[in-house]
Design goal:
199 residues; alpha/beta; Rossmann fold; seven-stranded mixed β-sheet; 6 helices
């Protein structure tokens, strides 16, 4: 799987564009000003760099070394600083109670590790910290706008409510949106959006 992502991110064109995720831009004001944000699976850095431009203290983690180099390049181009870490989230030594927010945009995990990694996101938050998530829901197989072509790796509201039962879910919604995020996320997509807050 790492080879797949390295190959995708080796293309000259940014795979998912440079513009940040729309939902993230709509809700980022819920993160405390100057707060610390962990962006998991940030690919080439479009979301992490945008957050850094808003004044947040950003840490990006991605599995692909090619992607991490592109995060650094995009940050340099944008005149911002952030931490860019190459790590497998299954093996990463997750910080504990460090971040004001964790952002997860289209990061899909297999069934056997999904709940564990979602709990690690929670554990990495300070008290009162928030998880901001957008992912494809199980209806996405009807569309051609991206995401894993495997039903088991797609999310649902019920699944997220179970995974994040230890925190307060402030909002959660399944809907169809139009995606314009580079050549690999383009067209109508079935998504689930969630904001949850650690107690």
């Amino acid at each position: 799987m790492k080879d797949f992502w390295d190959e995708r991110y080796a293309e000259a064109e940014l795979a998912y564009g440079e513009i940040p995720n729309t939902y993230l831009t709509e809700v980022a004001a819920q993160i405390p000003a100057d707060g610390s944000v962990l962006v998991v699976g940030d690919g080439e850095g479009r979301n992490g760099v945008w957050l850094a431009r808003q004044g947040f203290d950003v840490t990006c983690v991605d599995y692909s070394s090619v992607a991490v180099e592109k995060i650094k390049a995009l940050a340099d181009k944008s005149g911002v600083s952030l931490a860019a870490i190459c790590a497998d989230l299954n093996e990463w030594d997750w910080p504990q109670e460090k971040f004001d927010a964790v952002v997860s945009v289209y990061v899909h995990f297999p069934d056997d590790v999904r709940a564990v990694l979602h709990q690690k996101m929670v554990d990495s938050l300070k008290s009162g910290g928030k998880i901001i998530m957008e992912a494809f829901n199980k209806d996405q197989l009807q569309y051609k706008s991206g995401g894993p072509p495997v039903l088991e790796m797609l999310f649902s509201e019920a699944m997220l409510r179970e995974d994040f039962a230890s925190v307060n879910i402030l909002e959660i919604e399944e809907k169809v949106v139009y995606l314009d995020e580079g050549k690999y996320h383009c067209g109508d997509g079935a998504v689930v959006r969630m904001i949850a807050q650690k107690k």
